[in-house]
Records
---
Amino acid sequence: MLAAVLYGKEQLRVEPVAVPRAGPKDILVKVRVALTCGTDLKVFRRGYHARMIQPPAVLGHELSGDIVEVGSEVTRFRPGQRVVAANSAPCGVCFFCRRDKENLCEDLLFNNGAYAEYVRIPGPIVDCNTHEIPANLGYREAAMVEPLACVLRGLDESNVRPGDTLTVIGLGPIGLMFVRMAKLMGARVIAIGRRRAQLERAEQMGAAELVLSPRAALPVEEVKGLTDGRRGSDVVIEAVGSPHTWRAAVAIVRSGGTVNFFGGCPNSSQVCLDTSRIHYSEITLKSSFHHTPRHIRRALEVICEDRIHAGRFVIDEAPLSGLLEVFRKMMSHNGHLKTAILPWRDSSPDETGP
Ligand SMILES: [Zn+2]
Ligand SMILES: [Zn+2]
């Protein structure tokens, strides 16, 4: 089969490799859609991810497809089913799993390999994080489950109440999902982005206020001026992952409010924070990472009900052989949303499903 193998820093080759074998508890999925994601791009540029992937390995983690083979011990699934599988599975028994923090599982199993014609889904992911795609849902929309689950969990952690003003810094796919879901929760959303096209998308997703901020320094006072009594935002979501926007998020939140540092900064980044502001203004600082099986299930429901308009996030498509070109485009243009990589595009016409 054809697969995109990561060998190291910016070394990715689309080449023939052996089709993975499904063990007794695994399933083998014919990949219909693999979505590009900022994390894959980060891994591509860095050449590895300490927890998620060590080269050489097939890259890609947001996928949907058809089951072509099930292991002898698999009872929940059968060949021919359309499925979406998440990129990880918690162990279910460790300290964190027993405390509803499966995202922090001490033995979190990660799976990559979506940028390929076939991917093996390991038993633990088959058991708790693989779902049949309802008949009314396309492969592209279904593949959005994983990033949306991270966003839903981020919102659960952020103390959002109806009527709150919630500010989102950074309007990539994740930031836009926050805009949309916060709006549906009854929040008034302020969206801050670097490009006009991003602000237009945020408006379509329900943002009430748009702030263009092309430079590194965020217009903190302008944003506070958009909040009740200029007090600041009840909740701030940082969805960029850079030290200066982490600091700006703390400057924008109101007394007693919550900041969620959702964007992970480059390794060993340091941020200086004003301790008296955090203490005397009782600011809650959170940082959400990853998802849990419960959020994966909820994400699929939200997508099925078309509340997130998942299709709008996938703005382009390419065959597997075009993946490098897509990554280069993403690197030179941070306004990019998601591209559907279609490993079978040139061989079967019905790859996008219903
Ligand atoms: Zn992702
Ligand atoms: Zn665990």
---
Amino acid sequence: MINPFERFDKIREILIERNRFYSKRLKDPKTFEEIPFTTKSELVEDQTQNPPFGTDLTYPVENYVRIHQTSGTAGKPLAWLDTKESWDWWLRCWAEVYSGANVRAGDRVYVAFSFGPFIGFWATPTYALRLAEVAAQQGIDLVQGPIRTTVHAGEPGASIPETRRRIQEAFGARTFDHVGMTEMGAYGFECEMQSGLHINEDEFIVEMIDPGTLRPVDPGTKGEMVLTNLGRLGSPLIRYRTGDLGVLSREPCACGRQWARLMGGVLGRADDMITIRGVNVFPSAIENIVRRHSQVVEFAIEVSRRREMHELSLKVELENSAGEIIERLRADISKNLNIRATIEHVPAGSLPRFELKSRRLRVVD
Ligand SMILES: [Zn+2]
């Protein structure tokens, strides 16, 4: 394995010479740690100022053969270009994802995804549960079907134990998590041990920082993941603040891979955390509790402000009539998260269904 920093130094020389976005940023710093972080808002601003593709392009535009667009869940979508070499690099990164999920030559892969400018071959956990819901309505028994493995990304759900359990039970298959970003690449995946998400450290440099102080966090401490990709020379990202929070472990994995793992997957987004009466909560923690209750078909989280305090309320669609499930769910949230929630039973089919990334959290100020 080539030392990733040696590989980075070679890329750096090319970017200083040819890439308008990174040329200035990379010129002066003496060490890797002195290079400024790149943020998504800087990329959005760059594309606004230099439409339509911005200045993070190392080559003339005719060298690019693919265009992709971010989902726009958190604002204006980014457009992202790839050269033939960058696209081949994506495919190599995805090969690691398949290898981790034990997908082999001879397997048939069904892509549960609509083909738009959004990049991906997987299904979100939300969409997988939606497919299972429709299958049940149509009397199709997925468990008896041939699906052996499902691979998910786009939301942390497949690493949320209760969401994973529901998908596995619905499909009669083993469910694997995978993480990637349109502007970064397919950087993480689960191996057969299903003990955290491996970061593909052949192709990415990973750092964990405190999002407040921007200093590195101690190993085993929750931090924001900062990534650098090493094989996407046409449209690279150097020290990119992903906004994804996690805990990185360098303990060896039983699968034999040496790559670090994000324990429990992506634990939340730095910009997603909500504070309810002094308690910090991530939507993924709420989801893990809601999914324990099999009668809940779909749900939405609303945070509103009353007398300067944030209040949590949940809307739930239930399989059958309400019964005592509402009370049990309320007790479960209070016991596990130490917060009080108002829970409202809403009619079946009234909450939005999501094919791309779900937006179940709404903050009303
Ligand atoms: Zn492993």
---
Amino acid sequence: MRKIFLGPPGSGKGTAASRIAPKFNVPHISTGDLFRHNITEETQIGLEAKDYMKRGELVPDEIVIGMLKERIQEDDCQEGFILDGFPRTIPQAEQLAKLTDMDLVINMDVSDEIVIKRLSSRVTCENCGEIFNLVGLIPKNEGECDKCQGKLIRRPDDEPEVIQNRLNMYKEQTAPLINFYKNKNLVKDVTCTNINQTAEETVQSVLNAIENFTSEIKETLETPNNN
Ligand SMILES: [Zn+2]
């Protein structure tokens, strides 16, 4: 199974991917983790990526694709993977298609209002990257990561004035991807209109969408051809 979780920042795709991947025994691959790994290990590609990130710019496609290519060749990706936050653009999707076929794209469809509310209360573990917020994804102990007890901090790109900018960038660059994958009949929408929806509820809606998609594919294959 090779799946992509698409959605604006704050749509819950990262949380959904991290909880769903173990159910299918595949890794959850986020661009954030790829960057963290390459930057911590100070690989050449990591150092290049760091320069762009420091300037608040998007890391160029060839760098991200390079990291991803290495990652999906590892042993734990033999049965597939879930990509979170990648691809971001149509050129990236075209590059990805050269590396591997994907079998489903989950499109997390969440309103700006909900995204802004979630992101403006979002905190990230400075140690492991786990994300929390004060609407639906509250840490058990205030200021402390549930997973590793690391300190929770607000990332610079979750500051309110940066959020609208990220949303606009998402719409401009990533939203056309949905059409790109719709043309390949690979998209399932998961819509969230409830600001109080919990992470568990989001995970369940995504699991339902995966199940529906899989049974639709099966039906298509089993429907006798009437020609
Ligand atoms: Zn942590």
